[in-house]
Structures are given as C-alpha cells and as structure tokens.
C-alpha cells in the first residue's frame, strides 16, 4: 500500500499536486487531467481518511494526503454553489469545473463530515458535508419516485435534476443513504431518519419485486420501467446503512469501527496493538 501511495505522490509532483484518474505505468505520472470524487477516483480519497482512522491516527501520511486533496478540491473549484444556492461537488477536467454531480459523489457528504475536526457547522468541512448531503437529498425529493438519478445538473433554471436519458437511471446505489448515516450519527437530527425512511418507502413502492429489488430506468416516471438487476452492493451497502440509521449507536460505533467503501466494517486498531 505504501509503495503504491508513494508512486502516486511522485506522480502528483508533476501534476500540480493533483491525484488524477489515469496513471502512467512505466514512470510516476498521470495520463490525463481529470480529478474526480466520483467513479475512478472516489475510493482513493475515502481510503486516505479511513486508513488514518483505522490505524488510530498513526498513518500520518494518509491524513496529510487527504488534507492535501481537500486543498486541491478548493483550488480547482470542484465544490460549487448553484444559482439556486445548492452546494454540489463536481469533476475537474483540464483545470475547469463542471456543472453536474454524480450519485457516486454523494458519499462525500459523509466523508467530509467524518474527517471534520469538529462535528458541527463551525467546521468548514462538516458544513460542506451537510450541505452536500442536502443537495443529494434534493435530487431524490424532486423526482416522481423519490429516488435519486445517476447524475444531475445545475444551471440558472434547473437545480439537481437529471437531464439525459442515462442520467435518469437509479441503480439501487448507497451513496446518499451513506451520508444520511454519518450525518445521523454525528448530529442525531431526526431529519436524517426521515430522509432514510422516505428512501425505504420509495424502494418498497417502486423497486420491490418477488425475488428482491430492481433498479429503475427513469426516476422521473411515476410508473417506472425496471432494469431487472439487483446490484450486489444494494445488500452490502444500501440496506446496511438504512438499517444502521435506525439502530442504536452502540451497533458498530464509529469510535471502534470504520467502514470500507463497500460498507464492510473494519476494527480500529488501538495504538497499543498497532
């Protein structure tokens, strides 16, 4: 792990300190100028923070690189505020931010909250985590099904809405409820249990079939066509986080366990035994 991480650190030195998505094989460097907290990039940033937590704050390089990445997100203007006031997290292509957010990036609300030094709005990154979670909730609340699209855009006239056909799919993804889980654990604001229960009801109404649950081809259709696929992560992540939101905090407490990107819990290794 450290060998790979050190290779990426060397590569970032030729990329303005950025961790991009495609890596050169023969020497440290990147093949593109794409920085994302969505597909191809999400788990890297998440694991920097979570490895620091898993090692009981002993992996100093991990947290240094995580904090460096947060600075990069700011420099590249990847955290944006829409014309209607929604905070969203977009990609950077060739140094320029986009105007959309993917469902995959909705986990970042929970990640930013988890990494915040204080768990209240006085911390910039906790506040951003809360705001991103609210934007992802908005992407759900505005659809006919109450379930979130694969990606959504922000313009002067629309806010957190899927436009293209493929963007309107719902693949039973966990990222939004994952952020609900962290926000619930840190705030105990009952609104996050309400949001989670809204998802449960929408799943039962639109996705439940005789043999399990299916994704949807258009979240903006009140009678949506099913895609006839139950994703493996639906059980491992989506249902697990929904369950944990309604459990007592003593079930997998966050001061003793850390979840990997597939929501499998790993014990935090105390300093005395690491």
UniProtKB/TrEMBL annotation:
Pathway given for this chain reads: Protein modification; protein glycosylation
The EC number(s) this enzyme carries: 3.2.1.-
Q: Where does Ca(2+) bind?
A: 261
Sorted alphabetically, the Gene Ontology BP terms of this entry are:
carbohydrate metabolic process
Cofactor names: Ca(2+)
Q: List the disulfide bonds.
A: 106-136
Record-linked SUPFAM superfamilies: Seven-hairpin glycosidases
**InterPro entries given in the database record:** 6hp_glycosidase-like_sf (IPR012341), Glyco_hydro_47 (IPR001382), Glycosyl_Hydrolase_47 (IPR050749), Seven-hairpin_glycosidases (IPR036026)
* Gene Ontology CC: endoplasmic reticulum; Golgi membrane
What does the UniProt keyword field contain?
Calcium, Disulfide bond, Glycosidase, Hydrolase, Metal-binding
Report the enzyme's class at the first EC level. Answer: hydrolase
Any GO molecular function: calcium ion binding
What PANTHER family would the database entry show? MANNOSYL-OLIGOSACCHARIDE ALPHA-1,2-MANNOSIDASE IA-RELATED (PTHR11742:SF6), MANNOSYL-OLIGOSACCHARIDE ALPHA-1,2-MANNOSIDASE-RELATED (PTHR11742)
Q: Which family does it belong to?
A: Belongs to the glycosyl hydrolase 47 family.
Official protein name in the record: alpha-1,2-Mannosidase
Q: Which organism is it from?
A: Rodentolepis nana
């Amino acid at each position: 792990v450290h060998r790979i991480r050190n290779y990426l650190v060397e590569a970032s030195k030729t990329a303005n300190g950025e961790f991009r998505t495609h890596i050169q094989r023969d020497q440290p460097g990147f093949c593109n100028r794409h920085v994302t907290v969505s597909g191809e990039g999400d788990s890297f940033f998440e694991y920097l923070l979570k490895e620091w937590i898993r090692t009981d704050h002993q992996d100093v390089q991990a947290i240094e690189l995580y904090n460096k990445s947060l600075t990069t997100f700011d420099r590249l203007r990847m955290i944006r505020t829409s014309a209607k006031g929604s905070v969203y997290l977009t990609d950077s292509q060739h140094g320029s931010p986009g105007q959309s957010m993917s469902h995959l990036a909705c986990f970042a609300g929970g990640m930013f909250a988890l990494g915040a030094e204080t768990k209240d709005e006085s911390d910039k990154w906790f506040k951003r985590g809360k705001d991103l979670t609210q934007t992802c909730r908005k992407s759900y609340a505005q659809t006919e099904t109450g379930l979130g699209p694969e990606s959504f855009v922000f313009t002067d006239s629309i806010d957190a809405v899927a436009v293209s056909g493929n963007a309107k799919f719902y693949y039973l993804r966990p990222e939004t409820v994952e952020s609900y889980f962290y926000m619930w654990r840190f705030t105990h604001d009952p609104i996050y249990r309400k949001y989670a229960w809204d998802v449960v009801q929408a799943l039962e109404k639109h996705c439940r079939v005789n043999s399990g649950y299916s994704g949807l081809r258009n979240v903006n259709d009140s009678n949506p066509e099913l895609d006839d696929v139950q994703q493996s992560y639906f059980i491992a992540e989506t249902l697990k986080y929904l369950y944990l939101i309604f459990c007592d905090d003593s079930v997998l407490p966050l001061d003793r366990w850390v979840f990997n990107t597939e929501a499998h819990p790993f014990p935090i290794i105390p300093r005395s035994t690491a």
